[in-house]
Amino acid sequence: MLSGRQTLGSIEKALAELRREEAAVNARLEKCDIEITRLREEQLSGFRELAEFRLEGERKGELKRRLSSAKDIIGELLRNRAREIETLRAERTGMEGKIARATEERTRLTSEREALADRLDEVMEHVDDRLAEDGEYIAQKEKAEAICATAAAAREKARQAEADRDEKGVAYESDPLFLYLWNRGFGTSAYAHTGLIRFLDRWVARLIRYRDARPNYAMLTEIPLRLDQHATDREQAAKEEMNRLAEMSRAAATEIAGEDIAGRIAALDDDIDQRSQMLDQLEQDLSKLVEEERVYLDGEDEAFKKAREALAASLGAQSLKELWQDALATPSPEDEKIVRRLQEIADRRKSLEFDISKDRSILSDIGRRRAELARVTREFRRSGYDDWNSTFSDDNLASVLLGELVRGAITGAEYWARAQRSHRRRTNRGRGVGFPDGFGLPGSMGGPLSGRRGRSSGGFSTGGTFGGGSGGGFKTGRTF
Hints:
Layout: E1 2-3, H1 4-54, H2 57-131, H3 135-168, H4 170-173, H5 176-184, H6 195-208, H7 210-257, H8 261-297, H9 302-315, H10 318-329, H11 333-382, E2 390-392, H12 400-407, H13 412-422, E3 423-425
Antiparallel strand pairs: 1-2, 2-3
Helix pairs in contact: 1-2, 1-10, 1-11, 2-7, 2-8, 2-9, 3-7, 8-11, 11-13
């Protein structure tokens, strides 16, 4: 049996390792990019030397000027590009550092919370013993239970009235003439038409016996609203009475423990939630930076495209082709060295471009796996799966399954589905008398604020959605 904190810790560690792997591939690509830039400049220099040796007069001067201009343009573009890449890399490194520090701080807070929760759990049986003999508490408990029962009955009655409205309202709502008059407010002070329109509306009303049907439909629609408001009022009253019980339970626990442990845990819950929101935002910002950086690493930025076009234009010139062909056709010891060096440069570039292509493919795969793992991490935090009372029956979530997720053998949706099936909420000690239905307990220990985190509104590409969460009125029992 794994604790939620252990499971999330394993996932966060795997995510950090995957980010380090991604950074290493990024570094290789940047190194290759720098080397490619150097080779481009060396290639242009080689052709200038070849022109110096092979050409004469005006022809030599023109080609040298063109190559020098191309080298200057390309050099400036690539230097600016290198600065932009360096800025993005520095931002990414800084963002990764913030995430690491925020994760470490959140882990520290959850460890502190867990230790306090263990203490409160030990106290709860003593709270039961004390409150079982407290006449004021027992009287309040009986009062709260009676009002909760009334609230539950009122809510059920409101639901039944709503169902009746849906069933019986069909006959009225399927009649277009009735709806026409109803929407106009005919027969009420809201009706403002005169003249011919009023005359015709009266004729339609007599035709369908609207004056008999309108009060019945009005009653049918008003009753559910009144019953819903009544149920809401009863639920609020029940909540107030349960909160009084919660205060008495916490007061007993504080007296026994010598401090308000529940209050400290609730404060830590808030701090942890804030850290979770901060991490969500930081990870979203990091994902944007990674995507921006990928544009450069893939060679799709404007500076690289312009440099590539300028190089192609200079190296593709007819005079340059003739110069190369002449050097190959009539080699001499002097230009043979230049030709050999240019060929070596071309071979080296080809090798580097192959490495770059391979690393881009690797980086794309890592990015996909990192995004899946980051999403799982966010959902664990949002769902409170590392709360004190959160456990997992499947030990593979922190070993085999996690390894498969990191390698891309399974999707985040598949991992999350296994996590949800394996998830359990352990029950606190005591609570036979004190802290009824969790009232008075911090949210991370199963209190009624355990739904304080925003549940996921999205899901993985398989169509499943994360998390649970449900709307509705006041609950008199615990639901997980």
